[in-house]
Amino acid sequence: MPGLYFEEFEPGAVIEHATRRTVTETDNVLFSTLTLNLAPLHLDAEYSKNSIHGQRLVNSLFILGLVSGVTVPDTTQGTTLGNLGFGEVKFPNPVFHGDTIRARTEIVSKRESKSRTDSGIVNFRHYGINQRDEIVCDALRAGLMIKRSAAESAAAS
């Protein structure tokens, strides 16, 4: 698996994820309607012309999901036992149809699990950054990450 084991995460490390994604109108409309977020700022072009941005905004929860997803292959794919949750999440700049989003992850901290001997908790800070180098998403996340020794023991059995 391409993800990193608990031991491989070092606080202060920064990962620039190679995958980028241009957000489309279809992404925004589908996500908003599937999640029943019918806010006109996401769906109504005429309404949004009179907003402070003059156009529709991409649903912020779609952006959080996109940024989180982009980070998976380089950090947690196959090596996580679970996402423990998100802490503070900010959206300091809007995302519009046609914006291209990339992600950066900083390893904030890590510690041994208090209840499990096979894993530890890693705290990540994920940034979503648009093509203008503006931060559009800033999210703290905790993940329960397996230790290499536990993964090797499981593979041997």
Automatic annotation (TrEMBL):
SUPFAM superfamilies: Thioesterase/thiol ester dehydrase-isomerase. Signal peptide: none annotated. Pfam families: MaoC_dehydratas. Residues 11-121 form the MaoC-like domain. Belongs to the enoyl-CoA hydratase/isomerase family. This is MaoC family dehydratase. It comes from Saccharopolyspora ipomoeae.
